[in-house]
Amino acid sequence: MTxxxxxxxxxQNCGYQDIKWLGRCPDCGQWNSIIEEVxxxxxxxxxxxxxxxxxxxxxxxxxxxxxxxxxxSEFDRTLGGxxxxxxxxxxxxxxxIGKSTLILQVLERLASRGHRAAYLSGEESPQQIKLRAERLxxxxxxxxxxxxxxxxxxxxxxxxxxxxxxxxxSIQTFYTNIIPSAPGSVGQVREVAxxxxxxxxxxxxxxxxxxxxxxxxxIAGPKVLExxxxxxxYFEGDRGHVFRILRSVKNRYGxxxxxxxxxxxxxxxxxxxxxxxxxxxxxxxxxxxxxxIPCLEGTRPVLVEIQALVGPSPLGMPRRxxxxxxxxRISLLVAVLGKKMSMQLGDKDIFVNVAGGxxxxxxxxxxGIISAMMSSFLDKPVxxxxxxxGEVGLAGEIRGVSQSTLRINEAKKLGFSRCxxxxxxxxGSHKKGDMELIGVKSIRELYEFLFK
Length: 452
Known about the structure:
Blueprint: E1 8-11, E2 17-18, E3 34-37, H1 43-46, H2 73-79, E4 88-93, H3 99-112, E5 117-121, H4 126-135, E6 143-147, H5 151-161, E7 165-169, H6 186-203, E8 207-211, H7 224-228, E9 231-236, E10 243-251, E11 259-265, E12 268-271, H8 275-280, E13 290-297, E14 300-312, E15 320-323, H9 327-340, E16 348-354, H10 366-378, E17 386-388, E18 391-392, E19 398-399, H11 404-413, E20 418-422, H12 423-427, E21 436-440, H13 443-451
Helix pairs in contact: 10-13
């Protein structure tokens, strides 16, 4: 074995490399994740891809039809307006969440518009894919199915088929002959993704890659996989809910943090055009601990219900459970309530939940969360026609947030008559018809308005 062919030891969780075997990865801390791999051959053996001639940026022309519209508006919105030719989109999600269903529906829509689509599967037989297609009512003469695991053989088929777009399900099941390691290893995943990336850029054909996720929720394989692709989408959802959230966390051609909302039905995924109404349709009336907040997902305002339950704890260490919001944020707000409002919640069990399975990460939800906790602690309901938003600081102040007008308009559209926001946001907002806007500076003013 030559020096260039010496094996290296690679962590299958994070991609860390070493010249010797280690029981525990020094980078990510994972035990028994390091295996021996032979590095890929020199790039000269594989041939270098052609490069473009130098051009000034002003001389580069854009096609008027730069994006391919799938006809699924929620999917197009998440991508930033449609599929960009030559782009590589990575879609991750829990097993059974609906990744393959979504891609099959997207390919069928594009195939119905005259685009020849190829569905490459390394996990299922053609008959299994046909069973799913029958359930989803997917029928098209331009949608081709190819099964296997060796990408060299796939590229031979693609040279003959000449598709306009490709879907790979899933990237962890494919392998290349130039690396002697097993499919799914770090070297294989990285090399296979690089080959599809080069193919997409040279041919202008968009490629969808479906990726497995680890138990922590991250896409399995090296982090470099997310750096290679142009767009990373996460398909999220709770098995107990019918709603699925398609979230963009990286997008070279559009805005990040955009979401698409779908409803899982027997016939596949259906778009949800007005997610706010869906998330609020089962909201209880006159119940303490329930508050509606207008949060912002990318450019889309979404109204969700924050639920809080505060009660005495039978345990020596009270429980703090947060579903859909940051656990550390709950601890911060509990400390602010104890210091600034003398509401001692240290010996109470506190449970906070975002109804509908949505995840709220922005600080604009602070005022709504703290209102819900105060409502449950005092056992007093909050006005049903009221929405609350604003960031809460450690001094008990309520700070302004971005895009307040969008949030107010969405609340007014759904019939809410009053809105509590920070004084700074109130000064920059115009009166919205019969919508009453109440500006507050601190959580004490918030408390006095809600419960006095």
